[in-house]
Amino acid sequence: MPRRLRSGQLAEVFVVDVRTGKSRLVHRSTEVLVEAPNWTPDGEWLVVNGDGKLFRVAVTGGELQEIPLGGVPPVNNDHVLSPDGATVYVSAEDGHLYAVSAGVARRVSNDRGEGFKHYLHGVSPDGRTLAYIGMDRRGITNVCTVPAAGGDDVQITDDAYAGDGAEYSADGRWIYFNSERAASVPGHAQLFRVPAAGGVPEQLTDDERVNWFPHPAPDGSAVAYVSFPPGTVGHPADVADVRIRLLTADGGIREVATVFGGQGTMNVPSWSPDSNSFAYVAYPL
After folding, report:
1. 158 with 199: CB under 8 angstroms?
2. Which residues contact 220 (CB under 8 A, 6 or more apart)?
3. How far, in Å, CA of 201 to CA of 156, rounded?
4. Among 61, 80, 204, 208, which residue has the fewest nearby CB atoms (within 10 Å)?
5. Residue 47 CB neighbours (<10 A)
6. Contact 146/132 with Cβ under 8 angstroms?
7. What are the distances in angstroms from CA 238 to CA 7, 48, 99, 260?
8. Which domains does the chain carry?
9. Residue 255: enclosing H or E segment and its boundaries?
């Protein structure tokens, strides 16, 4: 079921300028719990989900405008846009992936056994391949890909470590993700990347916090991600100390914002096309 705002809670969509560190409010909702902003390739709109639907809101600010989904089942907060902006790919509550273009929908994902679910996070720079997290009925997750036009799946990782957030680098060579493969205690996720063709994952962060959802900038200058307090298991909602951070090209870590949030704050690619800004959501009470 779609998440709902708690009594007295707000959903606030912000755009942060990475050069100045200043955040600007784009939309505030007291009714719809909006999540997971994407930035359209033309730089003019943010795409968010809420109440099982998709909406767009102008980057300059304004009201939500519903995006027709052509009869797709209710969607969650895993959605991405094709590089040309003509197609939106969504994860639906039935566990499958769909492509929607001009209000016409088609299913992309395959049947991979009873209880298997697809959680979409990335599209390759050429628009031909989707990266998703596949979860089997046992709850085991792995990084997978599938052609955007439909076709056979490829499983990139094959292990029992909890992982999420599979997203392509701007050059298409890597898939970034978070994983517990280096954890000594449950829930201590860090950031990794793996060659898009498959191979050995490379660890990118190693600190006391719980790091999720790496989003590489279009120009390759940094990776934006959400960082939970030590001891957090998974990526829960309504956490007081969620830090939005940048992992810079030289390996440095820079704090950008601290929000009350977590789940829904920044689940999907959210950078502006020029790599100067990205979007996130806070959920203050």
Report:
1. no
2. 169, 170, 171, 249
3. 10
4. 208
5. 23
6. yes
7. 13, 18, 30, 6
8. 11-282 (2.120.10.30)
9. strand 253-261
Q: Which of 242, 238, 157, 138 is nearest to 202 (CA)?
A: 157
List, as own/partner pairs, every contact residues 64-69 make where C-beta atoms lie below 8 angstroms and the sequence separation is at least 24, other chains included. Answer: 64/27, 64/29, 64/32, 64/34, 67/100, 68/100, 68/103, 69/98, 69/100, 69/103, 69/105
Q: In the chain, what is the straight-line distance between the N-terminal and C-terminal CA atoms, in Å?
A: 21
Q: How far apart are CA 25 and CA 73, in angstroms?
A: 30
Residue 20 per-residue DSSP state: T
- As a whole number of angstroms, the distance between CA 150 and CA 128 comes to 10
- Distances from the Cα of 226 to the Cα of 56, 258, 266, angstroms: 23, 9, 7
Model pTM?
0.97
pLDDT of residue 69 exceeding 90, the answer is yes
What is the pLDDT, as a whole number, of residue 71? 96
What's the number of CA atoms in the CB half-sphere (13 Å) around residue 213? 30
Select from 167, 156, 110, 119 the least CA-distant residue to 139: 119
Tokens at residue 283, please? 């959920």
Taking a C-beta distance cutoff of 8 angstroms, is the pair 210, 184 a contact?
A: no
Query: 91-119: per-residue pLDDT in tens?
Result: 999 999 999 999 999 999 999 999 999 99
Angstrom distances, CA of residue 182 to CA of 63, 123, 188, 243, 244: 42, 26, 8, 21, 21
Q: Is the predicted pLDDT of residue 186 greater than 90, yes or no?
A: no
